[in-house]
Amino acid sequence: MENVTHTIIGLMLARLGLEKTTPRGAAMMMLAANIPDIDGIFYFTDAQRYIEYHRTYTHTLLFMPVMALLPMLLVRAKFSWRAHAAAMIAVFSHLLVDWVTFYGVPMLLPFSHHRFRLDIVRLYDPWIAAILFGALFATKLFETKLSESSRIGKSGAARRGFAWAALLLFLAFGSARMLARQRAVETLSAHSYVGARPLRVTALPDPVHPLVWRGIVEGDGFTALTQVDLTRDFDPASARLYHSAPRSPAMEAALATRSFQVFSEFSQSPFATEVRVPQGTFVQLTDLRFGAPDAPGFVTVSALVDPDGKVLRAGFGR
What we know:
This protein is globular. It has nine helices and eight strands. The chain folds into three domains: about 5-175, no CATH class; about 185-240; about 250-315, no CATH class. It is α+β, with helices and mostly antiparallel strands. α2 (about 25-30) packs parallel to α5 (about 80-100) and α4 crosses α5 (about 80-100).
């Protein structure tokens, strides 16, 4: 998820008592909750390097103890195992929060390249933001009331109580979204499309409505994009149907390039298109999690292959 959410979750964890493990403990926890995204520096290089290296080794269980040391150094914390354990909890919170998105996180690298993902929230979720900012606002309001009534000594308990409430509400919301997604997947799987049963279905969250899901239905030779509103009856006939290009010599040549290999490792819902052009064949893969074949979004990879099967150029973007 985006870094504001990570930062507030780090602060809430600090307020549970983990900030007391070291001076400047709250700052350490907020930094630790963000430190895996240090690999976001590849955003300033190019799209391929960003996709290839972002959310990789800095987001793994193996490197978590190392990542926890960096925020300790940044706040000049005196090393202790308690402080290191607290920082690791904050780093682990980053991995868990990224896990619930549809980007996924390869937590078991280098032993496995599998991207763990729950597909229940997007990179930004207004409901989660409301929970976290609501807790901050409620804490500030309560502390103001306590200071006015000269009961400042109870402010620590109030901060801890609102932090617990925010994190528990976050978990409850995530659990509810998991149930809603499961229902959306079951709805998509229960129908036929162009007379065929789906081979795989994916349900992705709507940017705002918690009961609306974007469906990706993959079948034998077709892909259907649709919307599932759990408050209404589902109509499979409303799905937009697309037919992916078959594996051709031009496609095989493109798939052998590094750009297409990086894309294939990252993408969970690839869709292939081929277009004949004067120079040969234009091949493109689109990640349907971020767009549609006719509106690809920002994660695409393409190649120009000449009639002899030689790749003239290949890279991310159209």
